[in-house]
Give the backbone structure.
Amino acid sequence: MNVINKTVDFHAHPVDEVFRREIENLGIDVLAEDGVVLIKVGSFAMGSPEDEPWRSADETQHTVTVSDFYISPYEVRQSEYAAVTGNNPSNFSGDDLPVENVSWLEAVAFCNALSEKENLTPTYTVNGETVTWDRTANGYRLPTEAEWEYACRAGTATPFNTETSIGADEANYYGHYPYEIEDNYFSQGNLTTKPGEYRQTTVSVMSFSPNSWGLYDMHGNVGEWVWDYYGDYPTEAVTDPTGPDSGTLRVNRGGGWNDFAKNMRSAYRAAAPQNQGRFNVGIRLVLGASSEGNAVSLSKENETQSGGNVLIAYFSWGGNTRGIAEEIAEQTGADLFEITLVNPYSDDYNTVLEQAQHDQNIQARPELADHVENMEQYDTVLLGYPNWWASIPMPIASFLEEYDFDGKTVIPFCSHGGGRFGQSLTAIAKLIPNAKLGEGLSIHYSGGSSMPDDVAEWLALNGIETKE
């Protein structure tokens, strides 16, 4: 693999001395104060093998060839985003921290604005929520999903580009939960990587060593938007894929500061509506290395509107989620439905931890004891659950698969012990891709005295009517 550097004014201020020194140590020439890394044409196995622990069914392995492209060595910083757009939407604050809490559409707009600022031809044409990508343009853009995974892997075929289980000293993530902790929580002697620090925030770009191709934070810190709509992979070999022609969700990759290691794997795919930001998702920029290509025009499908009858449906084990659901019912007067099981989980905390991770690992669908009558009468469902092992409890999957949510609005709320939503929003979005997802609410445990006000603010944000 030949990896070199192109002289391009990629950022709003010079690349740090740390970057230059790290790249030189890798044997890659730095030709300018500012630079992007050229990734040369090559083929790789995209997705994950069937025996990779904690793989998802949407990671079908297939052969992909990608053409040359230039990619930023690190995620767009807040100072860079603010210099171009005049604002900084980030949840955390710091010039050298990666920008986050930007939607896919805002990321596309940033690419165009930066291109114009540097006298390049903008790559995207935006008409409402329909975006056309001119592949002949020389401006900045988002990587495709295939380009991102190829660059992340840097020639590896293991779950992480470190080739071994990744530690909290190698990436910024929920370090208490290294790879395969779920199966070894009570007996950690078998873990390749032991639990480490959980920083609970983003950190400055380039805080950790780059992968072997000179790219920082491909695992952790913030996830990164890519071009593609979320959808099934092909099974045959493909060249320069750009994803499905239409869809409802956009893909982001790499995992963020609050993710478990299993959700930072090179093959893991997160997804979200293109008009919603996430406090753990940011941007990494790409430039095409060739003027060849054509236009790719994609359109968003299945726009829905919230309103009408509202149902509050929730699953609660320890009572925290139940308390939030009851507060929502008190403020809205909406119908309340508890998701219960024919065979409930154990009342013992340690036992339920094992049961929950086992059900997630095998993607179980526990049988529900009660059912919603006339689900069709509800236009909006407020869906509550505890964050279990950085995702939804499997009873939520059973519930979502029991009913037709096409055209409905689903607005999640969850209780958590420190990881906020984890990847639960992605799990929900993948299960009901034709529903509209509203802005979620995460509450730390039971929420304390501020919980009623937090609920009221969240209801107003999503346009949910409250009682007089």
